[in-house]
Amino acid sequence: MEQQTGLYVAGQWQRGETEIENRNPSDLADVIGHYAQATVAQVDQAIAAARKAQPLWWAAGIQKRHDVLMAIGTELMARADEIGRIISREEGKPLAEGRGEVYRAGQFFTWFAAEALRLAGERVESVRPSIGIEVRRDPVGIVAVISPWNFPIATPAWKIAPALAYGNAVLWKPANLTPASAVALTEIIARQDIPVGLFNLVPGAGRDIGQRLIESPALDAITFTGSVPVGRAIAASAIVNMTKLQMEMGSKNPMVIMDDADLDLAVAHACNSAFGGTGQKCTAASRLIVHERVHDEFAARLVAAAKALEVGPALASGTQIGPVVSAAQLAQNLDYIAIGKAEGADLLCGGERLNRPSEGYYMAPAVFAGTRNDMRINREEMFGPITCLQRVSDYDEALAVANDSEFGLTAGIMTASLARANHFRANMRAGCVMVNLLTAGTDYHVPFGGRGASSYGPREQGRYAAEFFTTVKTSYIAEGTPE
């Protein structure tokens, strides 16, 4: 299949001055394609086109926006297998996960299609006589979407869909590790009946294209998902222009396993939370805080479950854990294995690079025990198939350890006690709290986000997305008195 250039600006597929090679992390001999990189001039062209297109899109009305988003979402869901294969091939997640991600992306678009019809204001009484007040939501304007590689279609979808639903124009800078996924989504959006320049795909290096976006005074808002250091740099640059910011960043998610937990369920959920998606999820459980009465049995069962996981090519039947996304990510993971050992942690299993029939970035899921919360492996986001056990004596200590982090995205507890579950939900400092569930996995119609270094700005997803993608206007009118 002939690939598009990977660059879509002002209603046209364009070529850049440079391009990148996209290789399959499951099979390094497999070159998926070569994809253009935007220039600064093309970014400026995209911004100018978006500025012209945005008011036309807002004027098109809610039915038009509904119909366009519904068409995008419906096509994504219908093509989940095809586009899911693209994701699995270039990012490395097992095919079932790739398919599921595309289908979920479609659900984001169809849900926000309905929200476009529900954009309502308020008629409010004034404290002064003969004056009417209307409170309404207007589009924020031109939105830059900067998205990561680990969910290359789902994360952009939950940003692009509300941006378009609420009448905004979009410039999307995807991650360079997953350009084919970005092209697939852009092709679907570009075929819709939308104003020229309303949606633009501007891939490129963060130091060039990303920096141009975040420093532009012509942008009204930036929504970003990525690392804390990059998020802080974006904030420092964007604040000069008072650009509205929404950022989802790092995490170090705890899962607490109490002595009354169903251990079969706890092991299954911990294994899935820690190693699903090769541990490359912002919601992965990398800190397992275990009551001392069940610690040793839980550890033995978890190690057995980790060793039983089938690590292999993303498209192979039976694969449960795909490769790490890149050579750089694999090197970072192996560095953390060395760091954990040097800190005195006990590596119970995994942590080594694996050989498979095809050369790829395969790694055995790793479990550390004997860890403390002051170790780097329990403080820093590793973003790989690595999890750390910590032994605690009671619930109070477990909660204190769980909360002892600069991050606060997701957290979980495994317990049979309703009282403990309710106390944990009320006192865990995290944006999403799970009880007897995975730490990963959220619904698309409710808010998503964290606390501390994990998030900055309004929440993503659900009706709370309107807080970021719209701006509130209060209008007063002198109504007079009837004659």
UniProtKB/TrEMBL annotation:
SUPFAM superfamilies with a match to the protein in the record: ALDH-like
Keyword Protein biosynthesis belongs to the record: no
Domain Aldehyde dehydrogenase per the UniProt entry, residue ranges: 14-474
Gene Ontology molecular function terms on file: lactaldehyde dehydrogenase (NAD+) activity
Keywords from the UniProt entry: Oxidoreductase
Domain of life: Bacteria
Family matches, as Gene3D superfamilies: Aldehyde Dehydrogenase, Chain A, domain 1, Aldehyde Dehydrogenase, Chain A, domain 2
Cited InterPro entries: Ald_DH/histidinol_DH, Ald_DH_C, Ald_DH_N, Aldehyde_DH_dom
Pfam family membership, one: Aldedh
Similarity field: Belongs to the aldehyde dehydrogenase family.
Name of this protein: Aldehyde dehydrogenase family protein
